[in-house]
Structures are given as structure tokens and as C-alpha cells.
């Protein structure tokens, strides 16, 4: 499981990241998970994804059947582009690559976002960059 | 908990489900919402696909680095 995997990496890193990480470890232990966006981030993402009434601004696309999509080299190339595209969060830039390599500890510490929300960041990036996943790369029905 | 959820709430719960076990009520509420909302079914499928894709992407990415490891 993806999140569990990140958690393992998080543990690996804790030994080497030092005091900040130990503080985080305590925080994680007390909170058992680190999935909640800070209020600012949550508002930001919510506004991008949803209208005031809680409905989607733009319905998520059909990415096709998992078996098929996950066997497409192209899918991973596009995913890689998204991962390497630096999302801005509270003025601090980091790439998804950093996220994966450093583990959730640094991220949670710095911007109080969580592994689960990696996906949300990705989704937000997709919305903002208007369509890395569009144009029929993996979508069966291109949106525009 | 209200059984009638907005798309925004459904999305939050779908993401949280990757980290915690959902309650029976939450699962019912999700099923109800999915039965009437194609967009949220789509999102659920995307989230599921992403969950599967991330580890594979890491593999793919590691195998395609110039220094190769």
C-alpha cells in the first residue's frame, strides 16, 4: 500500500533527519496519522476543485482501466512530469520526487501536508497546468 | 454523521480511506453518493489507480535513471 510504504520510508529517515524528525515522530505518534491539510492548504485545494456548494468544478476524467493504464509507458512518463513539476505550497517549492525520496516527515514538518494529500497536490497541479493528463494521453475521452 | 455528503466531503473521505479504516456509516454514505454521482466514482477510480501507480512509478523511474539503480 502506497501510504504504508511512505510510512516505512518515513521511519527510515527518522534516524538521520535529526531533531525536527524526532519532534515529528512524537507528533505522528500522538496523532496516529498525518493526513490533514493545514487550513490554508485545504481551502486552496478545495477552491480549485470544488464550487461553493461542494460540487466538482470539473468532473475528474476517466483514466481507463487500471490494468491497461498501468501497462502504458506513457502513463508513467506523464506521471513523472507531474511528479517533477514543482508544486507550490505556502511559497515553498518541492518536487514530488523530493517527496518520495525524503518521505513524509520533512513535508509534514515543513508544510503540514500528508502523504495522502500527495495525490491532491498532483490533482491540483493537473488542474492548474490544464491537462497533462488530457489530450488523450491516458484519458479515454479528452476533456477539451 | 449525515448520510448525504457533498462531492467535497466524499473526496476527503476517499483520500482518508488510504490511511484509516472507514466506519460503516461512512462506507454507506460513500456508496449512496457513488450511486448517484459519476464524477465521484471517477475520482474514486483515479485515487485507486494513483495508489497502485506510485510504487510502480518509483520502479520505472529508478530503472530509467542515467546512473541506473
Structure in words:
The complex is a heterodimer of chains A (144) and B (69). Chain A has eight helices and two strands. Chain A is mainly alpha-helical and 144 residues long. A two-stranded antiparallel sheet of chain A has the order 1-2. In chain A, strand 1 and strand 2 form a beta hairpin. In chain A, helix 1 runs antiparallel to helix 2 and helix 2 packs across helix 7. Helix content of chain B is 71%, strand content 0%. In chain B, helix 1 crosses helix 2 and helix 2 crosses helix 3. The longest helix of chain B has 26 residues. The N and C termini of chain B lie far apart (48 Å). The mean pLDDT of chain B is 80. The chains are: A mainly alpha (144), B mainly alpha (69). At the A-B interface, helix 1, helix 4, helix 5 and helix 8 of A face helix 1 and helix 3 of B.
Question: How do you describe this structure in short?
Answer:
Chain A has 144 residues and is mainly alpha-helical. Chain A has eight helices and two strands; from the N terminus they run αααααββααα.
What are its keywords?
heterodimer; A: 144 residues; mainly alpha; two-stranded antiparallel ribbon; 2 strands; disordered N terminus; disordered C terminus; B: 69 residues; elongated
Describe the protein's topology.
The complex is a heterodimer of chains A (144) and B (69).
Chain A: H1 2-17, H2 19-31, H3 39-49, H4 66-70, H5 73-84, E1 88-89, E2 92-93, H6 96-102, H7 104-111, H8 117-128
Chain B: H1 7-16, H2 24-36, H3 38-63
Helix pairs in contact in B: 1-2, 1-3, 2-3
Beta-strand percentage range of chain B = under 5%
Classify the beta-strand content of chain A into a percent band. under 5%
Tally the helices of chain A: 8
Q: Order the strands across the largest sheet of chain A as they lie in space.
A: 1-2
